[in-house]
Amino acid sequence: MAARGIQPDELWADRGYASNAIDAALRQRQIEPRISKPRRRGEPIPAGTPTREVWRGKKRRLKTSDPHARHRWPVERTNAWLKAKRRIATRRDRKADTYLAFLHLGMILILARSF
Fold first, then answer.
1. Burial of 17 (0-12, 13-18, 19+ CB in 10 A)
2. Helix or strand or coil: residue 43?
């Protein structure tokens, strides 16, 4: 990415990417990680954090909301819209150029629908 002059300032990711190795690799490239940290079992919930009870099998557990979710939502929503296009979701095209062309076409359709 640096060859094109594109260098993001920060990277937003969900709890599945939380690791010290990823954080260190991003910081080495001068990218600030904005990765949600998972709450470990038995760890106290910070005061003021909204919670709700959910059933996991026969046990009730407290679930906390992800504070970074509102920043990731537009990207995840757009990816879901692209996956709704069957040709993009299944990736039947052998050539990367053809797949990229249909990806661009899908984005054009999404953007045209929003205006």
1. middle
2. coil
Residues 51 and 71: beta-carbon distance below 8 Å: no
Q: What angle do CA 64, 46, 23 make, to 5 degrees?
A: 75
Instruction: Please report, for residues 24, 36, 88, 112, the alpha-carbon distance to residue 17 in angstroms, rounded to integers and kept in the order given.
Output: 12, 8, 24, 33
pLDDT digit string, tens, across residues 29-55: 999 999 888 777 777 877 877 788 888
Round to whole Å and give the CA distance between 56 and 54.
6
Q: Minimal CA–CA distance to 72: which of 1, 8, 11?
A: 11
Instruction: For residues 61 and 64, give the distance between their C-alpha atoms in angstroms, rounded to a whole number.
Output: 10
Residue 109, φ and ψ in degrees, nearest 5: -65, -40
Distance CA 69, CA 36 (A): 9
Residue 65 CA to residue 38 CA, distance in Å, equals 11
How much is the pLDDT for 37? 81
> What is the mean predicted confidence (pLDDT) over 79-97?
87
